[in-house]
Amino acid sequence: MRSRSACTWWLVAIWFIFLIPIGTALSSNSTFFNPVIPGFHPDPSCIFVPEWDSTFLCASSSFNAFPGIPLHASKDLQNWKLIGHALNRKDQLPSLVETNRSTSGIWAPTLRFHDETFWLVTTLVDDDKPADDASRWDNIIFKSKNPYEAFSWSNAIHFEFVGYDTEPFWDKDGKTYINGAHAWKIGPWLQQAEANLDTGEVGEWRTIWNGTGGMAPEGPHIYLKDGLYYLLAAEGDGSVFVCGTGVDHMVTIARSEKVGGPYESNPANPILTNANTTSYFQTVGHADLFRDDSGNWWGVALSTRSGPEWVHFPMGRETVLTAVTWREGEWPQMTPIQGKMSGWSMPPANLDIEGPGPWVTTGEVATDMVEFEAGSALPAHFTHWRYPVKSSYTVSPPERSNSLRLIPSKLNLTAHNGNYAGPGGQTFVGRRQQDTLFTYGVTVDFSPTLEEEEAGVSVFLTQNHHLDLGLVLLPANGTTRALPGYNSTTVDNSEKLELHLRFRGESYVPIPDEMTAPVPEEWVGLPIRLEVKAANVTHYSFSVGPAHAASQMKTLVYASNDALSWGFTGAFVGVYCTSNGGVGSTPAYISDWTYIPQGQFRD
């Protein structure tokens, strides 16, 4: 009996011996979900700054959006907060107003911390100019002593380079370099030059690596580890329109004993890609690497949630996170990107972060309700297309408290050929779509007096990709259909002006035909609720009703989101006001702004 008990005791002891390391290993891992920063946040560059209360900070591209270069902070890699924008004043970079084409603007910032200073190096690109035109590439440096303070970010310091995706690097001998991607249509070269970041003075540019043969090697980042220089890059493109966004996108790496090369390619390249997979997360690439407080390595990259079909991805390129194994003297290994991830143990949840913007999260706490109270400003996450005309936006004006007054721009959302707007700009303000499923709505109080005066809501990607539902003054004979539930058989062929609802859009792919319907007589003169809903992964619905009676909301049209699945950016939902080229100046009053997240698709 004692012998059997002893045997049982030893079996239990052996079981515990094997269980403890397994349990320890499991408890040391963490589970997290991608994207960690959803919506239009491509080309992420992230750092860990122990000197700033052990905070992670990330910057991302903004193209023509303003404020530009959003900055997010986290202390636990799970909860991210918008703390501001590096580009937050027109005088920092006046030339953003003159960019032409929807793919122009701020490309691929690199954020670094050195000598108690935050450095952000990026490129303002005018994508309408030839690749060999040096004026196409305006490479710039911003610096700040405090990333939480908007006015701490300097005006742009300019430097010369015929290329983009520039980054700073400080070597162990005290020399400073800038690395960048040469205009790939001329030559697929990753190049380097010594630089003075305070003045923008650069030395001779020399090629340090050509990549592995994939199209458009870009996004270079150099890391000094274990006495070797590792050069991370993005390559590959499956798009006939633009680089850096195709399903063949990948992350490659090379290393050298010297910062200037020669660089030896990793035989196991690419080290991260979802090309040729059925994953919902596609176009994975343009990565950056950083360590946490425990010495563990992490990586961020861009990705689109589209599946290999690459048709429906209105949120564009988002920021995803992955764990990285990087043993001494070896090549880094990056965990493939999925919706549900496992990685190193993350720091405990910590929401002690300042900054004016919202947290990136889901559920009820992420509901975005703005009442435009007196004395308040537009929220930090509200965004314009290029620089706004400030006088066109007034929060809680004297004549209409708790509303946002919009003064119409002469140009509508398409403006000049879908590419250019000029200094007069467009009256539009929105927020990023950050959820697969959502409901967005506003109340519009608008009494136009001149033909083609219009105000409404838009799902806006770029000037040449947007879907709009507006209230507009049109001749009665311009009606194309009746509002659902108001099937009047009377046809008014007169030219008298009446308030209409109008759906129309702009895209490189087919969209529903333009539709106009007269506003029901009993609604005229009352505030009207306009609503956009993403009820599934492929379509938006556009609805309207009197603001005082939600039960009377009518859905006018469904539109596929493939119309907004294109290019470099991601969709915004917001409001606009325009005279459509006329002389109208009737303001629109926006109230009860609501964005309700209703679900994320990750697989």
Automatic annotation (TrEMBL):
It comes from the Eukaryota. Gene3D superfamilies: 2.60.120.200, Glycosyl hydrolase domain, family 43. Residues 1-25 form the signal peptide. Keywords: Glycosidase, Hydrolase, Signal. The record marks D165 as: Important for catalytic activity, responsible for pKa modulation of the active site Glu and correct orientation of both the proton donor and substrate. GO terms for biological process: carbohydrate metabolic process. InterPro entries: ConA-like_dom_sf, GH43_C2, Glyco_hydro_43, Glyco_hydro_beta-prop_sf, Glycosyl_Hydrlase_43. The active site is at D53 (proton acceptor), E218 (proton donor). One of its GO terms (molecular function) is hydrolase activity, hydrolyzing O-glycosyl compounds. It holds the Pfam family Glyco_hydro_43. The keyword Signal applies. The keyword Signal applies. Residues 371-595 form the Beta-xylosidase C-terminal Concanavalin A-like domain. Belongs to the glycosyl hydrolase 43 family. This is Non-reducing end alpha-L-arabinofuranosidase BoGH43A 7.
